[in-house]
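Extended Data, panel c. Modelled sequence:
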Amino acid sequence: MSSQKEVRISDACSENGNPAPIFEERSGAFVIHIKRILDKSSDKSSDKSSDKSSDKSSDKVFNLIENKPDLTISRISEIMGLSSRAVEKIISKLKSDNRIKRIGGKKTGQWETVT
């Protein structure tokens, strides 16, 4: 016999286009198995917005380096509010796109923009 809560959960699943949940009691615990169907169109949308935001971040890093070539990764991360690892990835992409290159060492070197 279904409780009111089980009915509400089942209704919510079907309204969202998901399969009916499975209710079971196991070792004195009540377990609900809910499977969801992923909407592929929302994945594409989030990929596009992610690409746009990473392009904007790349452009911001490029502009920072262009205006102040002696900036360090840690300083760029502070200015942009990103993790050092995120800035490293952006710089790596800028390097692979031949937009920037490093002249000299990590401590005494500087960035050079390629036009």
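The CA atoms of residues 7 and 77 lie 50 Å apart. This feature is highlighted in the accompanying rendering.
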